[in-house]
Design brief:
mainly alpha, Pemi-like Protein 1, Chain: D, about 40% helix, DNA binding, 2 domains, SpoVT-AbrB_sf, SpoVT-AbrB_dom, about 100 residues
């Protein structure tokens, strides 16, 4: 027999939602949008497990870090070449759709 450290009853709502008791949300720091793994074993026992780290959260943190990064990765020459490539691509698309490029 497993050692149960918390037990409570929840009600299943109209669309299948349940409310996780506040004490558990606090213990596991579950906030809006947090993801949980849900598993059912052969004995029809339901198990919930917090997802350790969401990939979207990792990406968001990385993007925030990059936004604060002041290092220059591209030179002015790179920017000029990029503008030229974009202009060529734009002109090709305009020709493709029968519009005159400027």
């Amino acid at each position: 027999m497993q050692n149960i450290i918390f037990e409570d009853m929840v009600k299943v709502m109209e669309r299948g939602q349940i409310t996780i008791p506040l004490k558990l949300r606090e213990i596991f720091n579950l906030q809006k949008g947090f993801r949980l793994w849900i598993r059912v074993d052969q004995n029809r026992k339901i198990e919930l497990e917090p997802v350790k780290e969401d990939k979207a959260k990792k990406l968001s943190e990385w993007l925030k870090k990059m936004m604060k990064d002041k290092k220059q990765y591209f030179t002015d020459f790179d920017e000029k070449k990029l503008r030229q490539i974009r202009e060529k691509s734009r002109n090709k698309l305009l020709r493709l759709y029968g519009k005159n490029p400027r």
